[in-house]
Amino acid sequence: MAEQIQVTRSLFDDVMVPNYAPAKMIPVKGQGSRVWDQDGREYVDFAGGIAVSSLGHCHPAMVSALTEQAGKLWHLSNVLTNEPALRLASKLVQQTFAEKVFFANSGAEANEAAFKLARRWALEVHGEHKHEIISFSKSFHGRTFFTVTVGGQASYSDGFGPKPGAVLHAEFNNLDSVKALMSERTCAVVLEPIQGEGGIIPATQEFLDGVRALCDQHQALLVMDEVQTGVGRTGSLYAYMNYQVEPDILTTAKSLGGGFPIGAMLTTTEIAKHLKVGTHGTTYGGNPLACAVAEAVIDTINTPEVLQGVLAKEQLFRQRLAAINEQYQVFSEVRGKGMLLGAVLNEKYQGRARDFFLAAADHGLMALVAGVNVVRFAPSLVITEQDIQDGMDRFEQAVAQVVNAA
Fold this sequence. Notes:
By secondary structure, this protein is of the alpha/beta class. The chain has two domains: 9-58 and 304-405, Aspartate Aminotransferase, domain 1, CATH 3.90.1150.10; 73-301, 3-Layer(aba) Sandwich (Aspartate Aminotransferase, domain 2), CATH 3.40.640.10. Helices cover 40% and strands 18% of the residues. It is built from 15 helices and 17 strands. The chain has helices at residues 9-15, 48-51, 60-70, 83-95, 107-125, 145-150, 154-157, 175-181, 205-217, 240-243, 269-272, 288-301, 304-328, 353-362, 385-405, and strands at residues 27-31, 34-37, 42-45, 100-104, 132-136, 167-170, 186-191, 194-195, 201-202, 221-225, 249-252, 263-267, 331-337, 340-345, 365-366, 368-369, 374-377. The strands form four sheets. Strands 4-12-11-10-7-5-6 form a seven-stranded mixed sheet, with helices on both faces. Strands 1-2-3-15 form a four-stranded mixed sheet. The radius of gyration is 21 Å and the shape is globular.
């Protein structure tokens, strides 16, 4: 008989690599936008597993899809294809600009594929001189060495030896800074329509229009990282649709699987042909279990009711945050769109986002930060009005706690 292991928070320190510092409580059950820990304490979930749990916890459509597929087929390999992967790819193609899909297991892997494809396309179409990738300060594209180097936060890529070369960083929402870096050597410009980890900073329409025009002018690809903004989070299936600016390559993950690991890179037939047989691959990408769950997620989210509901819920969040701020004067603005919002701390509370995050947990609310000055909310897209109100009541108590302790 297998040994029964007593699971406590201290066990993490004994057996896990110390690159994380998780909370003291351990969640054991979730339902909708509520989570319970080992002691039975209930939390309202405004974090969504960092913008992942797009349908909350244990949504019946996801549970059904997973259990049905689990009884059929778990894994093959990329020597074979499978029905859930082909159905999901077909739906992504039908609903977006794209014509071809590559499946991976995470946003970082989807971005790794996108950056490799951009480089391969440039090499084969234009030659070896065209290899520079322009990204942006404060951007985030994953934790592989290539994606973390393209990301605009040096603290994540420093300390691991020589970095991949030919990666340049412009200033987000500053078109002149992009112009200054672009040349015939530029193979791709990579951006998030709303910078997530960088502080929930939406691109302006003028900026995105300008970057698209610069890419066309310099024969470079526009790569949009929609890992955090994709699959309904901004009230459209993908955020590029809000701007009516089409990318050449798009990456998606997080909400796509609703909690089951999956990522995807979407592109056109003309660009995709440069990833010939053998040029790129993944053992688990396109896994039948992941694709079956993601298909259920897409089917559930990509409806007028849910997408319009996201924008209605945004207004409720903004109203409650405005009322809290009227009383406690802690935020300078609320940025973002849909169910990806950032409450920006004013000058008096600079650098104290983590204090609000910890206070929220004290009052039974799971929230997030985006840097040291932004409290981030990325809940389920189908969170109920009651859960929003209850969560905001708890957040108000947390704000009061921080303010009164100052």
